[in-house]
Amino acid sequence: MTAPLLETRALCKTFGKVQAVRSVDLALPRGRTFGLVGESGSGKSTVARLVLRLIEATSGDIRFGDEDLRRLGGEALRRRRRRMQMIFQDPYGSLNGRMTVGETLVEPQLVHDIGTGGRARRDRARSLLREVGLPDSAMDRFPHEFSGGQRQRIAIARALATDPELIVADEPVSALDVSVQAQILNLLGDMQREHQTTMLFISHDLRVVRYVCDEIAVMYLGEIVERGPRDRVYDRPAHPYTQALLTSAPGSPRKDGKRAKLAGEIPSADAIPTGCAFRSRCPHAFDRCKIEAPRMQDVGGGQTAACHLLDR
Ligand SMILES: Nc1ncnc2c1ncn2[C@@H]1O[C@H](COP(=O)(O)OP(=O)(O)OP(=O)(O)O)[C@@H](O)[C@H]1O
């Protein structure tokens, strides 16, 4: 095993009384796609913003390569940022409508001092467009002239323009028509492999995550409750929350009727249940779950989960 590209230890973020991220340990292997799943409000986007240092952590560590990301400032942080890019859910909002596609792809190169001269940068922009399946003629057009899927292609090309080591994709296909989602997921997968980029892929949709991720972590109310290689987590989910998410997913193949669907709403992050945070919705909750928070434990095959049932 090579050292992970990105690692967090006991990462926490509070917004007043809201505990958005609670002691998250992550390790993203280089050149792989790591999926972070959970319902809306589980803290996924906050983790993304923390690791890109768009917001400051309340406590905990973030290591990027051999650097302590939370201590970086000034020029060193700027250099680091060049190696990290984000792809957002909304390709309409994330592209500047007043810039042509060519300008959109040249600008990050300028900001980060990549390439020498306008000509080289425009050549690179055209080659990025071709990579994401758009013609050279797109260079002089504006984002609004493209469909949602095409705009997400432009956003992917822009993310690649600085040759990043890490791409954080936050719900990158959730705003797209279902018919276009698979194309964009394929493209992201191809790009990731081609460029050997490490990707943190965030989605509430387990089907989407299964499609692209090598490893998966499941978040609930700011904590990671289960983690492991993709097939292990899908085929043998150990945590009742993961089981319920899988049973509740549209098109779920699990028709064995043994597993409960996800009941009720996720509690508010400013009133997290004591003990196990999932107990208020867990069909298996018992006394111990009220008083003691379960620790992550090994369930074999590189999979870990935090549930008292595992001790039974
Ligand atoms: N700037 C903020 N101020 C206050 N609370 C916040 C802020 N950002 C996030 N939160 C809260 O933190 C919790 C986690 O939010 P976050 O957006 O990270 O979840 P998520 O899993 O990404 O969900 P979604 O998909 O809806 O964005 C939520 O309760 C949210 O309301």
From TrEMBL:
Q: Which PROSITE patterns match?
A: ABC_TRANSPORTER_1 (PS00211), ABC_TRANSPORTER_2 (PS50893)
A molecular function (GO) term: ATP binding
As for family, the record states:
Belongs to the ABC transporter superfamily.
Its main localization is membrane
List UniProt keywords, sorted A-Z: ATP-binding, Nucleotide-binding, Transport
Q: Where is the ABC transporter domain?
A: 6-246
User: Which organism is this protein's natural source?
Assistant: Psychromarinibacter sediminicola
Sorted alphabetically, which InterPro entries does this protein's record hold?
A: AAA+_ATPase (IPR003593), ABC_transp_ATP-bind (IPR050319), ABC_transporter-like_ATP-bd (IPR003439), ABC_transporter-like_CS (IPR017871), Oligopep_ABC_C (IPR013563), P-loop_NTPase (IPR027417)
Cite the PANTHER family for this sequence. D,D-DIPEPTIDE TRANSPORT ATP-BINDING PROTEIN DDPF-RELATED, TRANSPORT ATP-BINDING PROTEIN
Where it sits in the cell: the answer is: Cell inner membrane
Question: What GO terms in the biological process aspect are recorded for it?
Answer: peptide transport; transmembrane transport
- Protein's UniProt name: ABC transporter ATP-binding protein
